[in-house]
Amino acid sequence: MWIYIFKRLCLIIPALLGIMTLNFFIVQMAPGGPVEQMLSKIEHNVLQGETSMGGFSYKKEGIDIEMLAKINALYGFDKTLGERYWLMLKKYLLFDFGESFYKNNSVVELILQKIPVSLSLGFWSSLLIYLIAIPLGIKKAVNNGMPFDNITSIIIIIGNAIPTFLFALLLIILFAGGSYWSFFPLRGIVGDDFANLSLLEKIKDYFWHITLPVLSLSIGGFATLSLLSKNSFLEEIHKQYVRLALSKGLSQSQVLYRHIFRNAMLLVISSIPSTLLGIFLTGSLLIEIIFSLDGLGLLGYESIITRDYPVIFGSLYIFTLLGLVVVLLNDLLYRVIDPRIHFDKMGE
Fold first, then answer.
1. What is its membrane topology (predicted)?
2. Which of 6, 79, 251, 330 could form a disulfide with 83 if both were Cys (CB 3.0 to 4.6 A apart)?
């Protein structure tokens, strides 16, 4: 097993290099880079009658060559594409992601500032999804074809069909001072007076603020996991070893949780890391915008719009690395759940 882990860790390096290389050249060659955006901003200020901006002075009749050279040097575009690429690889090898073009802060500091919001949304929504969807899937499998199974299937399909942002708006209208009740706050992950609260009050304030965003993120995650749990259990219930266990006098619940559960949950539980990472990285953008939460989704969106290359590539590097490690963790989780799995016998 340790040989398998070592080989998988070694494969992370070329995979990470390939992904970063592909994205680097795609983003760098995209039109409307930081230099073009700065020039556009300067020209806009020229029309407004201003004569300086960001430490640069210029003439109203146009942008001179010297100033253009300074702007290119500011964003690193005084170097060739190949030089910029190799410089990025050297820095990223040391986890040096540089400074943001626009936020006057290092990329690492920006990511660390935004992580608590996205981590809160990803963790609690994933936990809620698993705590409800797995028992629901088991119950549906046991009652397959019965009224409970049919009614919950309809509810699940309807919930899955509702877009996340639409459900978030519905919750705001109903419970955040829209047109009916005002039970929950509309913005932020904590209140303005959070620092002055006691520990118990801080916990209460925190959960009070994240309730609606977490519910919004969770609504679309029930369908797939519930049906996956149900189908996994149904497949195991009809196997020969289940009939044998029942014939020996074991109760249905004993067979269900002692024998079926481990086999049926192998696929479901092993997907926890990837599910959490998916919600953590990509699932919260619209929710962050709707509930005014300053997280990683919003940071990534803003950096792409403004062509903030250090933030784009720094975030991409970190999350790609996390994604590759999560794939390895999924495999190892298979081994933890079912000790019968041996990687040494899988060709490693």
1. Multi-pass membrane protein
2. 79
